Amino acid sequence: MQSTSGPCRLHPAALLALLTAVVLISGCAPARLDTVQSGTAAGIIDPDRPLDSAYTLSAAGQYDMALRAFSQAALDDGLTAEILAGMGAANLGAGRLGQAEPLLRRAAEAEPDWPENLNNLGIVLLERGKTAEAVQVLRRAFALDNGESDAIRDNLRLALATFEKSATVDTNGTGYKLERQGSGSYLLTSVP
After folding, report:
1. How far, in Å, CA of 168 to CA of 120, rounded?
2. CA distance 91 to 74
3. What angle do CA 146, 152, 154 make, to 5 degrees?
4. What is the third-level CATH fold of 42-190?
5. Which of 22, 78, 128, 144 has its CA at 20 to 30 Å from residue 176's CA atom?
């Protein structure tokens, strides 16, 4: 029996296979959520607080990274209404209406008295041509908010005008645009 006190030597083919595996695995690693660029300012992301990170990323317009951070928060806390609404708002901000709608609906089912989420759901419905339902949802948001939010009031006015004229919202973005308001709420405004 020989003792192996010297360095371990791999056959060249085994070494090549090992290096290939390391390169392939490193290419599959998830993106880091420790920094985000927004214009000229860089924000540091706290990996121990993914929900805060998600809001920071969303506010910076980094919707895909915000969705990753919301997903991480969901692993920690479960799919709460807040996380569902945040994911829906991030998809809304990214223009992914088909993905935003079911998330915002689930959040509304879990927290039916949350006006900001209902506002965002109303915008998605309006943009998708579901005007009658958008009016109902925005009326509920307006009532729950006691008419205090200008964004909700303006969105309800637009939905009512659209409903009364039997017109549909231009989904190509040429007639309306989304403006982000505080606390993840959006305002739908017409482009002159």
Report:
1. 18
2. 16
3. 120
4. 1.25.40
5. 144
